[in-house]
Structure formats: C-alpha cells, structure tokens
C-alpha cells in the first residue's frame, strides 16, 4: 500500500449531482479508500449547517472541512472554527445590499435568508427550504445576532466587481457566474482547510489529494499534493488539475482513485 494519504472531496459536482444523487461507485470507492488505510475528508464551500444529508454522511468520512476552510472537524470533533465578528457581519450585509445583492448568510448551525423579500419563487431557495426547514432563519428578524462564517449572494444585474473592490481588504470574492458570488473572509479557502488539517494531524501537505470540479476548488487543487478534477467539471478547474478523471456519472471519483493507486 502507498503511504497514508488524506483525500479531500468537494461535494457538489464531485460526490453528488444537482439533485443530491450519489453514484454507487462513489460510495464504494470512498469506503474502499478508508479500508485501505487512507483518510477521507469532505471539503466544501457549504457551511456546516448545510452539510447534514444522511446518505452523504453515512458514506463515512474521517472529517469535514466546511465553509471554505472556516471550520474543521476531525473524528467528529470541532478542531477549528472561525466566526465573523457581529460588527463585521453587519457591515458586510449592509455593503452587499447597497449594491443590490441578495445575501444568504451561512453559519455553523443555520442559514439566514429573507426568503419572502429576496427569493420568492426562486427555485434554488425553494430547494434550500425543503432541505433545511427550520434551520433557515430570516436575516431581518435576527439582525446582528447571526452566527456565520461567510456569505453567498445572488447578483443578477449588480456591479459585482465594484463591490469586490470596495470589500477587497477583508474578503475574497469567488464569482461563479454573473448570478452567484461567494464572499469569504480573507485567508480562508478550501486550501487553507487542507493546511489546517495537515497541521492538526502533523501530516505533510505532499500526502494530500484534492478532488473537485469548479471555481471554488481552485485553491485546494493548487495546495494539495495532487489535484484531480472531474471530467464533468469546469474548464478553469481542469487547468489546475494534475489529473482529469471521467465525469460524475462515468464513475469519475472511483476512476480517479484507481488511477492514483489508492483503491
């Protein structure tokens, strides 16, 4: 067997699809990876409150990096957590709203969304509401009381780049497309999450592998010892890959682990 590796998996587009369906080959591959003595971590832009699906967690993972590196769990214990200060969070929400953004505030326990005012009839918000139920709280009602680590915003018709430039000293903007941006405190990425895990476990970064598919995976693909991108992933992500595997529903995750000799 190869020396022990820590393998970090993005969720959306890597482990499951837009309907949260996971290929059986993916489940079996991750379990086999761990049977072979390697470590498996989720590494997601989603904050922890939005990582709860039983059929995902039941696959079995050694830990979870969530919220673009703002929270790290190992063996079921929280080993690191960064929360936005209340004053900073309020200032950030006021700023993005001044540019017309519609924010989703992402926290450890809850998501905060003004559903009726900002997202009435929005299909993605309806999906969130179905999945999270009472863990979606209104921004205005809990004004300034939020426990959050980052924001995501709907940005149709907004000047995203002007807002980014104004907030650049404190936040990084991951612009997925003209409609969606993630706003993360400076210094926190999926890559910083990998570094934190290595620090906590006294592992060398060269013994890490990252699997991803999109723009918010770029830093972890670059930081990890090896970066693997799904064949169904974005062209930009593929430019950062050491290996491009097959697509999500072409056994891509399993094929990637086989290619690396891990299963």
Sum up the structure in keywords.
Rossmann fold; alpha/beta; 24% strand; eight-stranded mixed beta sheet; 263 residues; single chain
Q: Overview of this structure, please?
A:
By secondary structure, the protein is an alpha/beta fold. It folds into two domains: 6-81 and 188-259, Rossmann fold, CATH 3.40.50.1000; 86-185, Hypothetical Protein, Haloacid Dehalogenase-like Hydrolase, Chain: A, domain 2 (2-Layer Sandwich), CATH 3.30.1240.10. Helices cover 31% and strands 24% of the residues. It has ten helices and 14 strands. The strands form two sheets. Strands 5-4-3-2-1-12-13-14 form an eight-stranded mixed beta sheet. The protein has a six-stranded mixed beta sheet with strand order 8-7-6-9-11-10. It is globular and about 50 Å long.
Order of helices and strands: EHEHEEEHEEHHEEHEEHEHEHEH
Q: What's the multimeric state?
A: single chain
Roughly what fraction of the amino acids lie in strands? 15-25%
**Helical/strand content category:** alpha/beta
The total number of structural domains is 2
Helix content: 25-40%
Distance N to C terminus: 9 Å
- In the CATH hierarchy, the architecture of the largest domain is 3-Layer(aba) Sandwich
Apparent shape: globular
Poorly predicted residue ranges: none
Radius of gyration (Å): 18 Å
The CATH homologous superfamily name of the largest domain equals HAD superfamily/HAD-like
Instruction: Report strand order across the widest sheet.
Output: 5-4-3-2-1-12-13-14
Count of DSSP-assigned helices: 10
Main sheet overview = 8 strands, mixed
- Average pLDDT, all residues: 96
What's the count of strands? 14
What top-tier CATH class of the largest domain fits best?
Answer: Alpha Beta
